[in-house]
């Protein structure tokens, strides 16, 4: 019971009337189980240990700088009048943006029946949750008195005798990001339960069996369970699709609802959402391309998967480029002096270097994906997507810092300079992200085995139809 | 069939209750075909187990659709209701906030939170509803007693008929499975392993709950009891800022003053300037033994002159040796700066042309203010540079004269010099002869002059005519 699809087959070629195979090689259901489980079951490789140690050290740096911040006060950052948002908010928007790809791949591509998502959605969802964890850290400590951050919640307070202000975009943000984090976590965990049951059934060690047994909630693969499970999955996908679009929309309201020149624009919601998908897919590729070869997953995460994701990066990157142009057009067309100044200042003011770094990385570099050679060569993909990540960080820096540094009152203008704490926290947040991601690779199923098996089942089914067809014509 | 025979023997030996019969299949198609046959044979308490969701199996087995979407709908409706009620009650009823003049119940601003809570509770409905309907978590399952069943999460499909089925007959089911191509046909026995939670887990759980309540109890007790000891401040300097206000005392310095005076011999950053540049005095009078004393006399003098309206006796103003020439380079850009600064600070009283009839003066004349002293015209001969040197003019702007206050606080020294330069230009403008104009430009100037004179004349005639007409039109008082 197997289907011979050569390993070296170029599945990026479209053949009329046929679906390109998404699982390569002479692969069976059991092979999928073996390929995915060996990642967690074999002893950790040296490169994993080295990577984990580096990431864990950076995480400690983040923890120590946060402790220093809480003990000393927010003055340790470079945030000064008039740039009170500074890097913490730049980092927040950057990480929230990264966190959009996972749910997008899981929910929106699911609703569009894009089956190639099955082998990448698990890792992308994990990445989402870890990115949201990084994102949530920054506003939490940016409130100044982090130990009072619970004041954001609408609870009957005996100290304040008042409620949160529900007309503020910053409060909407609290609800949006926390809902997004919660629903993404449910979605990720629910998708993982059948695969955790596989881990449970394969485990030879008593404690391992107990831990995965508890996590998999006694999953037995009953078809009644599967039916409700599929329904719940479709419902969650339907709920998560508008949710993922709403989150970055609301993040953009933090800016767009204010009166600051360069922020007060109606284009922000779609522009932010496109940018978020753009950066999220770039991060997925930056991680998945090395991971697929290091973890031996080439048969399941094929060149076609990367080709498809590069096309999405090209599309969203072009939307982002169009948005940059539109901002300038509207600044000119709107004939508001402050707005015009804000945009001239962005491109040619003291932050020109940041602006043109952003344009080079976000608008020019993804255009290389028009060429198939660039979409199908792994190392080129990694280089371009790293550029996109850098560009998207700079986009948030440009939006936050250039607009705040020069608004209506020239006597209050200033230039933002980060401190070592800003740098340590930015780098440390990558430590948090990679620590979680590397632990995930070791402890959890990195690929959605059950969905990949159902994709393989369809592939078998199609192949049998073809055989029958061929047999019929021979007679 | 040997496996099933042994299983049956084991059952009869230990008298375990049979839960049902299973068969294994290796492909989706054979499983689906078998499901249809089992359904058609009339079995209802059946189930199939698969490593992934097999499409079409609910129809093949006759499984009814789930009510899960309704649970999600209830969650969503609850979410939107709770969110709207919460926001309206909190922000419009219990604690009405006035925000930018918006209505207290401003629905558009409540949409984002309502949307998020709708999604959140609908997702909870779908997620928890699914587990509840599936009866999970359930860790004890008779199916798990069969070690071969571990492969159900790998690559094997199981079909199962429950012994509680009305038509259940072990031999019949086994035959049917064999006909369908099922392998490893097996009986499943009830799981008789203890279902009780181990007592050490219960004890550990109780202990951890008890321990976690302690901090909460301490907080609760502290909230409701009075204490004579002072409140505990985690971050003392955030509750009480150590920074002092201007008039407060401090124990840090010997003089106990929080506001620190300038340190002797220092100049504030950006204030290092030549003394004559900031005072307009070329060199201090020989009568005064010390420059500082001279300056003090000078300052008192200018204060007196303000109150007495100009002292008659020879004052320090006359004995001072003033700078003759503007220390800044006089060029077009300096004059432009001077014009701008003059326009901002001087013109309101002295008028744009320096004639002494600015808007403030016009208004004061209109109100007939008796205390008003008319601003000087800058075009008096006594104010020309030969009688009133640049330094003296600078000093007047700096320290004021009569009713005019000093502008040192508002205008920077270098801008005061720009104003001095501009005032000189203004004075020239009122007194210039055509000889000063270069030969080449005289003709055009003459032409312009003639044009202006003609226009003024016409305007005057027009005004006269209008005045005459309006007199004619207006009804004569009887």
From TrEMBL, chain A:
Keywords: Cell membrane, Membrane, Transmembrane, Transmembrane helix. It is found in: Cell membrane. It is a multi-pass membrane protein. Signal peptide: none annotated. InterPro entries: NrfD-like (IPR005614). Pfam families: NrfD. This is Polysulfide reductase, NrfD. It comes from Stieleria marina. The lineage of its organism: Bacteria, Pseudomonadati, Planctomycetota, Planctomycetia, Pirellulales.
From TrEMBL, chain B:
Residues 333-427 form the Cytochrome c domain. This is Cytochrome c. GO terms for molecular function: electron transfer activity; heme binding; metal ion binding. SUPFAM superfamilies: Cytochrome c. Keywords: Heme, Iron, Membrane, Metal-binding, Transmembrane, Transmembrane helix. Gene3D superfamilies: Cytochrome c-like domain. PANTHER family: LIPOPROTEIN-RELATED, QUINOL:CYTOCHROME C OXIDOREDUCTASE MEMBRANE PROTEIN. Residues 443-478 are annotated as: Disordered. The chain crosses the membrane at residues 67-89, 110-133, 200-220. InterPro entries: ActD, Cyt_c-like_dom, Cyt_c-like_dom_sf. Pfam families: ActD, Cytochrome_CBB3.
